[in-house]
Specification:
It is built from 10 helices and 10 strands. The protein is α/β, with parallel strands linked by helices and 284 residues long.
Length: 284
């Protein structure tokens, strides 16, 4: 269930068009909220949602990006996922805005820049200028981290509560530039910390591995998060990590509608067949 009751309760409780939080009055976008209710209703009534397959270029050949983009388009990929890592938020270093800019030259598909970096707010404009369609921000950059992961070299990063004001500030910056905003959850961070900002997001990405490297094994802890989120969120719900034809059915059943795949796609002898196998799982 997508959560019609959840949104209906919100609208009923805030019939004046405002929400009181910690003594402050926050004006809500009723048009967007009503739109989410209608989407939820359609999903629940029809039992379907649009399945999208996103290819993470972390497993692509960086010396042949133009060919990789052509392969994605030819194979039926819906969007390009760019894993940006800084060696601080995660124990690996990958790529930055220059690669996003290079990828944009070779494809018209949407590009999501998944920022696994410290201080992501310092780089929003750079990634949007480079051609990103969606910016993925880690929730763990917007709250007090647990004691075991506060220092450099302590991974994975995890939080229990979100600094809502800081998140909304950056979400509005992204949207103000014409981009879409996504919040990302590490496996150890509870989905409930996002509840106050769900109505302001375009998408949520649930990590089903600890971020940093491709080729990891799927972590089932993601399933309960997906179920919790889908009961409250009408936007795109994505999952990233260990996604293949064996793990995808449970993920889709839990409520995801966007599958991010890296090694399963780029490591396949027949990438188009791999995409077709995933897409077939989403057919009613």
């Amino acid at each position: 269930m997508c959560g019609v009751k959840y949104y209906a309760d919100r609208m009923s409780a805030n019939s004046a068009g405002v929400v009181s939080s910690a003594g402050k009055i926050i004006f809500r976008d009723w048009t967007r909220l009503l739109g989410r209710v209608m989407i939820c209703w359609l999903w629940e009534a029809m039992g379907i949602m649009k399945l999208e397959i996103s290819a993470s270029i972390l497993s692509a050949d960086f010396g042949r990006l133009a060919e990789a983009m052509a392969l994605c388009e030819r194979s039926g990929i819906d969007s390009i996922h760019v894993d940006v890592m800084d060696g601080h938020f995660v124990p690996n270093i990958t790529i930055g805005p220059l690669i996003v800019q290079a990828v944009r030259k070779y494809t018209k598909l949407p590009i999501e820049s998944h920022l696994m970096i410290e201080n992501p707010w310092d780089y929003l404009d750079a990634f949007l200028d480079a051609g990103s369609s969606v910016i993925g921000l880690h929730a763990e950059c917007y709250g007090e981290r647990r004691p075991a992961c506060r220092a450099y070299g302590q991974y994975p990063k995890e939080i229990d509560t979100l600094d809502v004001g800081r998140v909304l500030r950056d979400v509005r910056r992204i949207r103000g530039r014409g981009g879409k905003a996504c919040l990302v959850l590490n496996p150890g961070t509870p989905a409930g910390c996002l509840e106050e900002v769900l109505g302001d997001l375009d998408s949520v990405l649930v990590m089903s591995v600890n971020p940093g490297f491709s080729g990891q094994k799927f972590m089932p802890v993601a399933l309960s998060k997906l179920e919790w989120l889908r009961a409250r969120f009408a936007g795109d719900l994505a999952v990233d990590g260990g996604i293949n034809a064996e793990t995808a059915p449970a993920v889709l059943q839990a409520g995801a509608n966007v599958l991010v795949t890296a090694s399963y796609f780029f490591g396949s002898a027949s990438p188009a067949v791999a995409v077709g196998a995933l897409r077939a799982l989403g057919r009613p």
